[in-house]
Design goal:
single chain, 275 residues, alpha/beta, Rossmann fold, 14% strand, binds NADP nicotinamide-adenine-dinucleotide phosphate, SDR_fam, oxidoreductase, NAD(P)-dependent dehydrogenase (Short-subunit alcohol dehydrogenase family)
Length: 275
């Protein structure tokens, strides 16, 4: 029996992956913020006879308190973590600042993955083939790090924040083996492209309707989106860090994966967390 920790494990691809692993006999700890979706996840787990192997861990991963509480709870629940999947997200059309003074998208999409990934290294290292699966956007829409204004005080748009978080996650993957040089943990950056999930729900009406329509024309269902992710979790590539757009492996040669920028962001983020 393997143990998977899945952020955003109560909806979309996170939930699809969680139910898949429960069906085949694994243990799943799904982390998300609302009790309603958490309850629905547990009900579905019970309906497939996996209630005893499913845990809903309620935490707001946009806050450092929620991230640290998650680490503490996971440590209570599991000695070994085989797979850590990052899928928590919530689009914010307007700029919001968390209780830690950090812009919400940067906190939830990127910082929670930094804190949980590094924080669970010991539990992952006890697994046979440990994997961190960061579902984000490598090789997708463009976007950049706003180095002088990472929390986007100037010129915020939800899309700009989401794209910045995507680029930050690219660099997070590249920086991971620099921090843990001899680790056996394989870090996979994965872009599923367009998938029909709850992602568009928080968008303003016209944008939401257009995005949902595009999803029906160009997007995939969760059921079709998760098999390549499962395969990468089961048989991770040998290299410490890899990036995929669906099944296509991306070279880590573009500026999105620049090692100097990765170290720069890693240093800035470590300072931010310590503060
Ligand atoms: N869908 C796509 O087309 C697409 C394309 C490219 C990349 N991706 C990436 O794939 C990943 C999964 O996306 P998805 O579309 O499957 O997600 P989704 O259906 O929108 O589900 C998001 C999950 O995140 C949780 N969440 C939201 N806010 C949270 C918070 N503050 N704290 C903890 N959990 C929170 C939600 O539960 P609660 O609301 O209960 O907290 C839910 O379980 C994301 O990283 C996304 O950026 C998606």
């Amino acid at each position: 029996m393997r143990t998977y920790v899945i952020t955003g494990g109560t909806d979309g691809m996170g939930k699809g992956l969680g139910l898949h692993f429960l069906r085949r006999g694994d243990q799943v700890i799904a982390v998300a913020s609302s009790a309603k979706k958490g309850g629905a996840f547990l009900q579905e787990a019970a309906a497939i006879g996996a209630g005893e192997r499913a845990v809903f861990l309620r935490a707001d991963l946009s806050t450092l308190t929620g991230m640290r509480a998650t680490l503490a709870r996971v440590a209570d629940l599991a000695d070994t973590v085989d797979g850590l999947v990052f899928g928590a997200q919530r689009f914010r059309p307007r700029r919001e600042v968390t209780e830690d003074g950090i812009e919400f998208t940067f906190a939830l999409h990127y910082l929670s993955r930094f804190v949980l990934g590094h924080g669970l290294v010991d539990a992952l290292a006890r697994a046979d083939t440990p994997v961190i699966m960061n579902i984000c956007g490598p090789g997708g829409f463009p976007g950049r790090l706003h180095w002088d204004d990472l929390t986007l005080r100037e010129g915020y748009t939800g899309t700009r924040a989401a794209m910045q978080a995507s680029r930050a996650n690219d660099l997070l993957g590249v920086a991971f083996p620099h921090r843990h040089p001899n680790t056996r943990i394989r870090y996979v950056l994965y872009n599923p492209m367009m998938v029909r999930t709850a992602m568009a729900d928080p968008l303003p009406a016209p944008h939401r309707i257009l995005t949902k329509a595009a999803g029906f024309v160009f997007g995939r269902s969760v059921a079709r989106a998760i098999p390549p992710i499962v395969q990468l979790l089961d048989e991770p590539p040998g290299d410490p860090v890899t990036a995929f757009r669906r099944r296509t492996r991306l070279p880590l040669t573009s500026k999105d994966f620049d090692p100097d920028n990765a170290i720069r962001l890693d240093t800035l983020t470590a300072e931010l967390v310590q503060r």
